[in-house]
Amino acid sequence: MISSKQKLPRHIAVIMDGNGRWATSKGLSRSEGHRAGADSIDRLMEISLELGLEAISLYAFSTENWKRPVTEIRSIFNLLVEFIDSRLEGISKKGVRILHSGSRKRLSSKVLSKIDSAIEITQKNRKLTVNFCVNYGSQEELLNAFSKLSEERRKKKIPIQKPISTKELEKYLYTYPLPPVDLLIRTAGERRLSNFLLWQSAYAELFFTDTLWPDFGEKDLKEALDWYGRRTRKFGGLENG
């Protein structure tokens, strides 16, 4: 049970795993599993709004997911377009801001247009930020950030010997200006980060649950938040200073 005095994480990241296993267990296609997973996103947004959470990042499609069958990839992106078309108006009215973290390469013009439209329409909303990580890979993000930072320094003729600061680099991450991840949740029993928000999760608390993503609901989120509330976060220091 979450108390009114409990400190909530500013930024929650979620690796939404288990759609395929959920579908298989019910004799359904993987595409139906992804559809059920989209319904879980709806529930997560509603609960997050009720609790007053600030930001959530969702691992929707990784740079490694291109290795999956073409039919499944097509189904995922068709579902993304459908999700935006059917829910954007309601999402915006509730004060939700949509962001995108990930590479724009390989994404179709239709998908990019839908994402850009969602970002533009919701840009002034501040009740909750939902960051969809689509075509996202943390290692690629870091390489891209270093490349852009190096080019910017070259243009400004900044000496190569000058040390790079954390804040300087973070301005070139896909997630800027979101705060660091406080709590990272992974569903379906897996215990790895899978190239997701590695920099941003440097001091995140990691919560793993066996619950498959389509079954993830209010009880599961509150369990994770309650667990987070009991953690002592020292950031490399000592508890009492």
Automatic annotation (TrEMBL):
UniProt keyword Magnesium, yes or no: yes
Enzyme Commission number(s): 2.5.1.-
UniProt-annotated catalytic positions: 17, 65 (proton acceptor)
Cofactor(s) required for function per UniProt: Mg(2+)
Magnesium listed as a keyword: yes
This protein's UniProt keywords: Magnesium, Metal-binding, Transferase
Enzyme class label: transferase
Any GO BP annotation: polyprenol biosynthetic process
Cofactor note: Binds 2 magnesium ions per subunit.
Entry binding sites for Mg(2+): 17, 205
Record: residues binding substrate: 18-22, 30, 34, 62-64, 66, 68, 186, 192-194
Listed HAMAP family: ISPT
Primary role: Catalyzes the condensation of isopentenyl diphosphate (IPP) with allylic pyrophosphates generating different type of terpenoids.
Stored NCBIfam families: PRK14842.1, uppS
Family listed: Belongs to the UPP synthase family.
Name of the protein in question: Isoprenyl transferase
Organism: Leptospira langatensis
Taxonomy of the source species: Bacteria, Pseudomonadati, Spirochaetota, Spirochaetia, Leptospirales
